[in-house]
Amino acid sequence: MIEPSVRAGDFPRLAKQTYLNTAAEGIPPPCVIEALATYGRDKLLGMDGRLLHEQQWSGLREAAATLFGLTPDEIGICSCSSEAFNLAALALQLKQGDEVVISDLDFPAGATPWLQEACPATVRLWRSREGALHVEDLMPLLGPKTRLVTVSLVSFFNGFMLPIKDVVETVRRHSEALIAVDVTQAAGRVPLRLAGVDLIVSSTHKWLLGSHGGGLVGVPAARAAEWTVPAGGWFHLANAFDADRFERAVTKPGAASFSVGMPNYPAVYAVHAAVRYILATGVEAIHSHAQPLTEACLEAVAGEDVDLLTPQSPSTLAGILAFRHPKAEAIHRMLHDANIHIMAHAGRLRVAIHGYNTSDDIDRFLTSLRQAVARV
After folding, report:
1. Total domain count, the chain
2. How confident is the model at residue 248 (pLDDT cuts 50, 70, 90)?
3. Are residues 258 and 293 in the same domain?
4. Based on the domain organization, do 276 and 286 belong to the same domain?
5. What is the extent of the structural domain holding 346?
6. Which of 83, 182, 201, 275 has its Cα between 20 and 30 A from that of 108?
7. Does some domain include residue 210?
8. If DSSP codes are grouped into helix, strand and coil, which group holds residue 115?
9. Do 268 and 53 meet the contact criterion of CB atoms below 8 Å apart?
10. Closest CA to 148 of 182, 167, 176
11. What is the mean pLDDT of the chain?
12. Mean of the pLDDT values across residues 158-176?
Protein backbone atom coordinates (compact mmCIF):
# COMPACT_ATOMS: atom_id res chain seq x y z
CA MET A 1 0.00 0.00 0.00
CA ILE A 2 2.97 2.32 0.41
CA GLU A 3 4.37 1.60 -3.08
CA PRO A 4 2.79 3.52 -5.99
CA SER A 5 2.13 0.41 -8.09
CA VAL A 6 0.60 -1.49 -5.19
CA ARG A 7 -1.46 1.50 -4.12
CA ALA A 8 -2.80 1.96 -7.64
CA GLY A 9 -3.89 -1.67 -7.79
CA ASP A 10 -5.23 -2.08 -4.28
CA PHE A 11 -6.80 1.36 -3.77
CA PRO A 12 -7.83 2.61 -7.23
CA ARG A 13 -10.55 4.81 -5.76
CA LEU A 14 -7.92 6.90 -4.00
CA ALA A 15 -6.60 8.08 -7.37
CA LYS A 16 -9.83 10.07 -7.70
CA GLN A 17 -10.02 11.59 -4.24
CA THR A 18 -7.90 12.82 -1.36
CA TYR A 19 -8.93 10.58 1.50
CA LEU A 20 -7.66 11.69 4.91
CA ASN A 21 -10.33 10.19 7.16
CA THR A 22 -9.01 6.75 8.09
CA ALA A 23 -9.46 7.55 11.79
CA ALA A 24 -13.19 7.23 11.08
CA GLU A 25 -13.27 4.63 8.29
CA GLY A 26 -10.44 2.79 6.60
CA ILE A 27 -10.56 1.95 2.89
CA PRO A 28 -10.31 -1.85 2.55
CA PRO A 29 -8.02 -3.47 0.00
CA PRO A 30 -9.48 -6.02 -2.48
CA CYS A 31 -8.49 -8.98 -0.30
CA VAL A 32 -10.96 -7.81 2.36
CA ILE A 33 -13.83 -7.61 -0.13
CA GLU A 34 -12.88 -11.04 -1.48
CA ALA A 35 -12.80 -12.41 2.07
CA LEU A 36 -16.43 -11.36 2.55
CA ALA A 37 -17.31 -13.13 -0.69
CA THR A 38 -15.42 -16.21 0.52
CA TYR A 39 -17.50 -16.18 3.67
CA GLY A 40 -20.63 -16.18 1.51
CA ARG A 41 -19.41 -19.16 -0.49
CA ASP A 42 -18.45 -21.04 2.66
CA LYS A 43 -21.82 -20.26 4.27
CA LEU A 44 -23.56 -21.91 1.32
CA LEU A 45 -22.02 -25.19 2.48
CA GLY A 46 -24.18 -25.19 5.59
CA MET A 47 -22.64 -27.03 8.53
CA ASP A 48 -19.74 -28.14 6.34
CA GLY A 49 -18.80 -24.48 6.20
CA ARG A 50 -18.25 -24.36 9.96
CA LEU A 51 -14.82 -25.96 9.65
CA LEU A 52 -13.82 -23.24 7.21
CA HIS A 53 -15.24 -20.57 9.51
CA GLU A 54 -13.19 -21.99 12.38
CA GLN A 55 -10.03 -21.89 10.26
CA GLN A 56 -10.59 -18.18 9.65
CA TRP A 57 -11.20 -17.67 13.37
CA SER A 58 -7.92 -19.37 14.25
CA GLY A 59 -6.10 -17.49 11.51
CA LEU A 60 -7.30 -14.14 12.80
CA ARG A 61 -6.18 -14.97 16.33
CA GLU A 62 -2.72 -15.83 14.99
CA ALA A 63 -2.51 -12.62 12.95
CA ALA A 64 -3.78 -10.44 15.81
CA ALA A 65 -1.30 -12.09 18.18
CA THR A 66 1.54 -11.02 15.89
CA LEU A 67 0.13 -7.49 15.77
CA PHE A 68 -0.25 -7.22 19.55
CA GLY A 69 2.91 -9.09 20.52
CA LEU A 70 0.98 -11.92 22.22
CA THR A 71 0.20 -15.58 21.56
CA PRO A 72 -2.96 -16.77 19.76
CA ASP A 73 -4.33 -18.12 23.05
CA GLU A 74 -4.11 -14.60 24.45
CA ILE A 75 -6.41 -13.19 21.73
CA GLY A 76 -10.19 -12.91 21.97
CA ILE A 77 -12.59 -11.71 19.29
CA CYS A 78 -15.85 -9.85 19.89
CA SER A 79 -17.93 -7.37 17.88
CA CYS A 80 -16.43 -3.95 18.70
CA SER A 81 -14.42 -2.03 21.26
CA SER A 82 -17.57 -0.95 23.14
CA GLU A 83 -18.58 -4.57 23.68
CA ALA A 84 -15.05 -5.41 24.79
CA PHE A 85 -14.98 -2.70 27.45
CA ASN A 86 -18.44 -3.56 28.75
CA LEU A 87 -17.39 -7.19 29.06
CA ALA A 88 -14.24 -6.00 30.81
CA ALA A 89 -16.44 -4.18 33.31
CA LEU A 90 -18.26 -7.44 33.99
CA ALA A 91 -14.96 -9.21 34.51
CA LEU A 92 -13.64 -6.71 37.04
CA GLN A 93 -16.74 -6.87 39.29
CA LEU A 94 -15.89 -3.52 40.84
CA LYS A 95 -17.12 -2.69 44.33
CA GLN A 96 -17.98 0.43 46.29
CA GLY A 97 -14.75 2.19 47.14
CA ASP A 98 -12.88 1.00 44.06
CA GLU A 99 -11.51 3.66 41.73
CA VAL A 100 -11.08 3.79 37.96
CA VAL A 101 -8.94 6.35 36.13
CA ILE A 102 -10.02 7.53 32.67
CA SER A 103 -8.75 10.44 30.59
CA ASP A 104 -10.44 13.32 28.79
CA LEU A 105 -8.79 12.25 25.51
CA ASP A 106 -10.47 8.82 25.52
CA PHE A 107 -13.12 7.64 23.09
CA PRO A 108 -16.49 6.98 24.81
CA ALA A 109 -16.14 3.19 24.39
CA GLY A 110 -13.35 3.00 26.93
CA ALA A 111 -14.62 5.66 29.32
CA THR A 112 -18.38 5.32 29.64
CA PRO A 113 -18.80 1.77 31.04
CA TRP A 114 -17.34 3.07 34.30
CA LEU A 115 -19.70 6.08 34.35
CA GLN A 116 -22.89 4.03 34.32
CA GLU A 117 -25.02 4.15 37.46
CA ALA A 118 -24.66 0.39 37.75
CA CYS A 119 -20.91 0.76 38.21
CA PRO A 120 -20.19 1.28 41.93
CA ALA A 121 -16.62 2.50 41.45
CA THR A 122 -15.52 6.10 41.68
CA VAL A 123 -14.17 7.51 38.42
CA ARG A 124 -11.17 9.83 38.53
CA LEU A 125 -10.41 11.93 35.47
CA TRP A 126 -6.89 12.36 34.14
CA ARG A 127 -7.11 15.76 32.48
CA SER A 128 -5.01 16.79 29.51
CA ARG A 129 -3.05 20.03 29.30
CA GLU A 130 -2.46 21.72 25.95
CA GLY A 131 -3.66 18.58 24.20
CA ALA A 132 -1.34 16.17 26.02
CA LEU A 133 -1.60 13.84 28.99
CA HIS A 134 1.26 14.33 31.43
CA VAL A 135 2.35 11.43 33.60
CA GLU A 136 2.96 13.74 36.57
CA ASP A 137 -0.78 14.53 36.51
CA LEU A 138 -1.60 10.82 36.69
CA MET A 139 0.38 10.16 39.86
CA PRO A 140 -1.97 11.96 42.31
CA LEU A 141 -4.90 9.94 40.93
CA LEU A 142 -3.32 6.61 41.86
CA GLY A 143 -3.47 4.84 45.18
CA PRO A 144 -4.48 1.69 47.04
CA LYS A 145 -8.09 1.99 45.83
CA THR A 146 -7.21 2.22 42.12
CA ARG A 147 -8.39 -0.93 40.35
CA LEU A 148 -8.05 0.18 36.74
CA VAL A 149 -6.38 2.79 34.56
CA THR A 150 -7.90 2.81 31.07
CA VAL A 151 -6.40 4.92 28.29
CA SER A 152 -6.17 5.25 24.52
CA LEU A 153 -2.74 4.74 23.03
CA VAL A 154 -3.62 7.33 20.38
CA SER A 155 -6.43 9.79 21.05
CA PHE A 156 -9.29 9.89 18.57
CA PHE A 157 -9.78 13.54 19.54
CA ASN A 158 -6.45 15.08 18.60
CA GLY A 159 -4.02 12.25 17.80
CA PHE A 160 -1.92 12.57 20.95
CA MET A 161 0.10 9.37 21.38
CA LEU A 162 0.56 8.33 24.98
CA PRO A 163 4.06 7.44 26.25
CA ILE A 164 2.73 4.06 27.30
CA LYS A 165 6.00 2.80 28.81
CA ASP A 166 6.05 5.76 31.20
CA VAL A 167 2.39 5.20 32.05
CA VAL A 168 2.97 1.53 32.86
CA GLU A 169 5.95 2.35 35.07
CA THR A 170 4.00 5.07 36.90
CA VAL A 171 0.95 2.90 37.53
CA ARG A 172 3.09 0.02 38.80
CA ARG A 173 5.03 2.33 41.10
CA HIS A 174 2.00 4.01 42.68
CA SER A 175 -0.74 1.36 42.68
CA GLU A 176 -1.68 -2.23 41.97
CA ALA A 177 -4.15 -1.24 39.26
CA LEU A 178 -4.73 -3.04 35.99
CA ILE A 179 -3.95 -1.14 32.79
CA ALA A 180 -6.32 -1.30 29.79
CA VAL A 181 -5.30 0.29 26.48
CA ASP A 182 -7.50 1.03 23.49
CA VAL A 183 -5.28 0.78 20.40
CA THR A 184 -8.03 1.43 17.83
CA GLN A 185 -6.35 4.61 16.54
CA ALA A 186 -2.89 3.02 16.56
CA ALA A 187 -3.16 -0.60 15.38
CA GLY A 188 -2.06 -0.85 11.77
CA ARG A 189 -0.54 2.65 11.73
CA VAL A 190 2.17 2.66 14.40
CA PRO A 191 4.21 -0.20 15.88
CA LEU A 192 2.67 -1.49 19.09
CA ARG A 193 5.00 -1.84 22.06
CA LEU A 194 2.70 -2.78 24.90
CA ALA A 195 4.86 -4.55 27.45
CA GLY A 196 3.21 -4.46 30.86
CA VAL A 197 -0.31 -3.73 29.57
CA ASP A 198 -3.02 -5.96 31.04
CA LEU A 199 -5.82 -5.56 28.47
CA ILE A 200 -5.60 -4.53 24.81
CA VAL A 201 -8.70 -3.58 22.82
CA SER A 202 -9.11 -2.53 19.19
CA SER A 203 -11.86 -1.93 16.69
CA THR A 204 -11.16 -3.19 13.18
CA HIS A 205 -12.73 -0.84 10.62
CA LYS A 206 -10.27 2.03 10.83
CA TRP A 207 -6.47 1.78 10.44
CA LEU A 208 -6.61 -2.02 10.20
CA LEU A 209 -8.69 -1.61 7.01
CA GLY A 210 -11.14 -4.35 7.99
CA SER A 211 -14.90 -4.40 8.32
CA HIS A 212 -17.34 -3.33 10.99
CA GLY A 213 -18.42 -5.95 13.49
CA GLY A 214 -14.96 -6.89 14.69
CA GLY A 215 -13.31 -6.30 18.03
CA LEU A 216 -9.88 -7.62 18.96
CA VAL A 217 -9.01 -8.26 22.60
CA GLY A 218 -5.61 -9.13 24.02
CA VAL A 219 -5.24 -10.57 27.52
CA PRO A 220 -1.76 -11.68 28.60
CA ALA A 221 -1.93 -15.15 30.17
CA ALA A 222 -0.67 -13.80 33.47
CA ARG A 223 -3.81 -11.63 33.73
CA ALA A 224 -6.35 -14.23 32.60
CA ALA A 225 -7.90 -14.54 36.06
CA GLU A 226 -8.58 -10.81 36.35
CA TRP A 227 -10.08 -10.60 32.85
CA THR A 228 -12.48 -13.55 32.83
CA VAL A 229 -15.97 -12.45 31.83
CA PRO A 230 -18.83 -13.97 33.91
CA ALA A 231 -21.42 -13.75 31.13
CA GLY A 232 -23.98 -16.21 29.89
CA GLY A 233 -23.72 -17.69 26.42
CA TRP A 234 -22.03 -20.76 25.03
CA PHE A 235 -19.05 -20.11 22.77
CA HIS A 236 -16.91 -18.83 25.64
CA LEU A 237 -17.99 -21.53 28.10
CA ALA A 238 -15.92 -24.60 28.89
CA ASN A 239 -18.97 -26.74 29.72
CA ALA A 240 -21.67 -25.33 27.44
CA PHE A 241 -22.81 -28.80 26.33
CA ASP A 242 -21.58 -30.97 29.18
CA ALA A 243 -23.85 -33.00 31.45
CA ASP A 244 -23.65 -30.34 34.19
CA ARG A 245 -24.54 -27.42 31.89
CA PHE A 246 -27.79 -26.69 33.74
CA GLU A 247 -26.07 -26.76 37.11
CA ARG A 248 -23.20 -24.35 36.50
CA ALA A 249 -21.56 -22.21 33.83
CA VAL A 250 -17.79 -22.44 33.59
CA THR A 251 -16.18 -19.62 31.64
CA LYS A 252 -12.98 -20.13 29.70
CA PRO A 253 -10.35 -17.89 31.30
CA GLY A 254 -8.92 -14.70 29.91
CA ALA A 255 -9.15 -13.68 26.27
CA ALA A 256 -11.44 -16.55 25.30
CA SER A 257 -14.10 -15.25 27.69
CA PHE A 258 -14.62 -12.15 25.53
CA SER A 259 -16.05 -14.27 22.69
CA VAL A 260 -19.45 -14.64 24.29
CA GLY A 261 -21.76 -15.86 21.51
CA MET A 262 -21.79 -17.05 17.93
CA PRO A 263 -18.86 -15.34 16.23
CA ASN A 264 -19.53 -12.69 13.62
CA TYR A 265 -17.89 -14.82 10.96
CA PRO A 266 -18.28 -12.33 8.07
CA ALA A 267 -16.23 -9.84 10.08
CA VAL A 268 -13.78 -12.55 11.10
CA TYR A 269 -13.09 -13.34 7.44
CA ALA A 270 -12.72 -9.67 6.54
CA VAL A 271 -10.57 -8.69 9.51
CA HIS A 272 -8.34 -11.75 9.08
CA ALA A 273 -7.62 -10.67 5.50
CA ALA A 274 -7.10 -7.05 6.58
CA VAL A 275 -4.65 -7.82 9.39
CA ARG A 276 -2.70 -10.16 7.15
CA TYR A 277 -2.52 -7.37 4.56
CA ILE A 278 -1.23 -4.92 7.15
CA LEU A 279 1.34 -7.42 8.43
CA ALA A 280 2.50 -8.25 4.91
CA THR A 281 3.06 -4.56 4.22
CA GLY A 282 4.68 -4.13 7.62
CA VAL A 283 3.56 -1.70 10.31
CA GLU A 284 7.10 -0.33 10.58
CA ALA A 285 7.09 0.35 6.83
CA ILE A 286 3.68 2.00 7.01
CA HIS A 287 4.85 4.18 9.88
CA SER A 288 8.08 5.13 8.11
CA HIS A 289 6.13 6.16 5.02
CA ALA A 290 3.23 7.98 6.69
CA GLN A 291 4.96 9.66 9.63
CA PRO A 292 6.90 12.26 7.60
CA LEU A 293 3.67 13.14 5.80
CA THR A 294 1.90 13.61 9.14
CA GLU A 295 4.70 15.72 10.58
CA ALA A 296 4.84 17.94 7.50
CA CYS A 297 1.08 18.35 7.48
CA LEU A 298 1.00 19.26 11.18
CA GLU A 299 3.76 21.82 10.74
CA ALA A 300 1.94 23.44 7.83
CA VAL A 301 -1.45 23.48 9.55
CA ALA A 302 0.14 25.05 12.64
CA GLY A 303 1.08 28.02 10.46
CA GLU A 304 -2.50 28.63 9.35
CA ASP A 305 -5.16 30.73 11.05
CA VAL A 306 -6.55 27.82 13.06
CA ASP A 307 -6.54 26.63 16.67
CA LEU A 308 -4.27 23.59 16.67
CA LEU A 309 -5.37 20.82 19.05
CA THR A 310 -2.55 18.37 18.41
CA PRO A 311 0.70 18.84 20.37
CA GLN A 312 3.64 19.66 18.08
CA SER A 313 5.94 16.93 19.31
CA PRO A 314 7.05 14.12 16.97
CA SER A 315 7.36 11.72 19.92
CA THR A 316 3.63 12.02 20.69
CA LEU A 317 2.38 12.10 17.08
CA ALA A 318 0.81 9.16 15.28
CA GLY A 319 -1.49 9.41 12.27
CA ILE A 320 -3.98 12.06 13.42
CA LEU A 321 -3.90 15.82 13.67
CA ALA A 322 -6.79 18.07 14.66
CA PHE A 323 -7.63 21.75 14.81
CA ARG A 324 -10.55 24.09 15.43
CA HIS A 325 -11.91 26.97 13.41
CA PRO A 326 -15.04 29.08 13.99
CA LYS A 327 -16.17 28.23 10.45
CA ALA A 328 -15.19 24.56 10.60
CA GLU A 329 -18.38 23.27 9.00
CA ALA A 330 -18.07 25.66 6.07
CA ILE A 331 -14.44 24.70 5.59
CA HIS A 332 -15.39 21.04 5.71
CA ARG A 333 -18.03 21.55 3.01
CA MET A 334 -15.55 23.34 0.76
CA LEU A 335 -12.99 20.58 1.20
CA HIS A 336 -15.61 17.91 0.52
CA ASP A 337 -16.71 19.74 -2.62
CA ALA A 338 -13.07 19.59 -3.72
CA ASN A 339 -13.15 15.79 -3.11
CA ILE A 340 -10.95 16.07 -0.03
CA HIS A 341 -12.25 13.94 2.80
CA ILE A 342 -11.51 14.74 6.45
CA MET A 343 -13.73 14.68 9.54
CA ALA A 344 -15.65 17.57 11.07
CA HIS A 345 -17.42 17.52 14.43
CA ALA A 346 -18.48 20.34 16.74
CA GLY A 347 -16.03 22.86 15.31
CA ARG A 348 -13.16 20.36 15.21
CA LEU A 349 -11.52 19.24 11.99
CA ARG A 350 -9.50 16.03 12.01
CA VAL A 351 -7.02 14.74 9.45
CA ALA A 352 -5.84 11.12 9.39
CA ILE A 353 -2.85 9.99 7.32
CA HIS A 354 -2.25 6.30 6.54
CA GLY A 355 0.13 4.25 4.44
CA TYR A 356 -1.96 4.69 1.30
CA ASN A 357 -1.67 8.47 1.45
CA THR A 358 0.90 10.41 -0.55
CA SER A 359 2.65 13.75 -0.52
CA ASP A 360 0.27 14.82 -3.30
CA ASP A 361 -2.64 14.16 -0.91
CA ILE A 362 -1.08 16.43 1.68
CA ASP A 363 -0.32 19.16 -0.86
CA ARG A 364 -3.89 19.12 -2.20
CA PHE A 365 -5.32 19.24 1.29
CA LEU A 366 -3.12 22.13 2.40
CA THR A 367 -3.79 24.14 -0.75
CA SER A 368 -7.55 23.66 -0.41
CA LEU A 369 -7.45 24.37 3.34
CA ARG A 370 -5.69 27.69 2.78
CA GLN A 371 -8.20 28.64 0.11
CA ALA A 372 -11.13 27.67 2.34
CA VAL A 373 -9.81 29.56 5.38
CA ALA A 374 -9.28 32.66 3.22
CA ARG A 375 -12.81 32.46 1.87
CA VAL A 376 -14.68 32.00 5.15
Report:
1. 2
2. very high
3. no
4. no
5. 4-20+282-375
6. 275
7. yes
8. helix
9. yes
10. 176
11. 97
12. 97
